[in-house]
Amino acid sequence: MVNLTKLLGLERRNPKDDDGTMGLYSKDGLFFKTSIWKVVTIAKLFWRYGWDIKRIGEWVTTMMSSFSRIYEYQEKGMAFTTVEDMLKAMDEQFINYTRISAQTMFKDAGFSEIFINELVMSAMRVNYGQTTDTHGFVAAVSMAGVESGLWSVKGGNKNVAESLLKASGARLIQGKVTNINMMKSATGMPSYEVQYEKAGQQADQEESIAEYDLVIMATPLDGNAKMKVVFEGFPSTFNIPNIPFHSLEAMFVCGHVNLSTFGMDQQDELPDSIMTTNAEVFFNSIGLLEPVDEISNKAGKPEESEEYGVWKVFLNKVPTEAEVQALFDTRKSVQLVNWLAYPQYQPTKELPSFVLYDRLYFINAIEAAASAMEMSVIGAKNVALLAYNQWYSHLDKIDEVLVPSDSSQDSAQGKQAQESVKSEEL
Ligand SMILES: CC(C)=CCC/C(C)=C/CC/C(C)=C/CSC[C@H](N)C(=O)O
């Protein structure tokens, strides 16, 4: 993301000097709150979680050091056919992490139950709407996501996709792909007929068709009727991956938080973000938003008498009126957005392939390991390199493994990688 945003001439939004305060909420109420004073926060964290607080930073840095090998591969034009091959090339351990639960992975790494049940759990709830029953690799990415230092793009992260489209010079057809039909040419190589409904057209109007030598899919394939694409003309052995997705509700509220729910009397006692530690709590997280163009005052929290704040709440289902009322006592506006946000993760023995068929590629395969903006750009670059290498028969650049670089550099590399990848704030 760092290179991509530089390439596109995008600016980082001014980083805040702190990440604001954070609270942890369980079904019994708010039980932990960080302070505006860093030293107090560190003391409180050490008091509750002991040395795990320090160890997690080191653990994530080590993971990132291995993870950052992907940039070395991609720099050399090398690509991978499957997510499994890609993870193994970064670090043999990574594949094991996809096979066990997050709970087991962190327990085996020596982290305490309280640390796993509260901090790993709350990170999984806010980042993936899930629990520590997911596989370990996605939980590692999730922990990387809660370490400080996240940054976002000035004007909004959506500028990345928009600028990329402009810079690529590609012709965008706005529509919904309904069918991909394989046709064999005289040489035996497949080509593809892509059928789509142009946006705004009525379903009963004539569909549009275009023929391509090579097709790259960048969409979740979760077997859900809403996004179903029909594949025709393929042999009966052709299998489309079915990766079930997690349906998430994002609720944006301009209003005042109901302080009594969080056991507070004063607005300024309220943390800027509240994460939850039980799947039974009806919301996953709540956080104060800031404008994408500027940094507002201090933590951006409005005084009682001032304007309303804009809050983002993640939930796994549409809230009832009583639930919205429990979170906000005054509301100026409420907007609910539902989408299939990321896979529903569980330990797995099978990770999908980036290749669905000859010359038919699937970027979102990478989401089975972990879904994040950084993962998407890595997946997209991998598919671009793979398609190129296959087209020009550069077979020496496919599924090859480099000897890991000098381990003495690992920690420095990990820190550098941490800086490069943590480019997301939803
Ligand atoms: C293997 C490790 C420790 C790190 C991998 C590097 C990586 C991909 C870091 C990204 C961290 C991050 C910002 C995670 C956010 S979680 C997903 C997010 N909420 C979203 O919806 O995209």
UniProtKB/TrEMBL annotation:
Keyword list (alphabetical) reads:
FAD, Flavoprotein, Glycoprotein, Oxidoreductase, Signal
Name the family the entry cites: Belongs to the prenylcysteine oxidase family.
Return the Polar residues bias intervals: 406-420
Entry-linked PANTHER family: FARNESYLCYSTEINE LYASE, PRENYLCYSTEINE LYASE DOMAIN-CONTAINING PROTEIN
* GO MF assignments: prenylcysteine oxidase activity
Database matches in SUPFAM superfamilies: FAD/NAD(P)-binding domain (SSF51905)
Q: Which GO terms describe its biological process?
A: prenylated protein catabolic process; prenylcysteine catabolic process
Q: What is the lineage of its organism?
A: Eukaryota, Metazoa, Spiralia, Lophotrochozoa, Mollusca
Q: Where is this region: Disordered?
A: 406-426
Cofactor(s) required, per the database record: FAD
Protein name, UniProt field: Prenylcysteine lyase domain-containing protein
Q: Does the keyword Glycoprotein apply?
A: yes
Provide the Prenylcysteine lyase domain boundaries.
Answer: 32-400
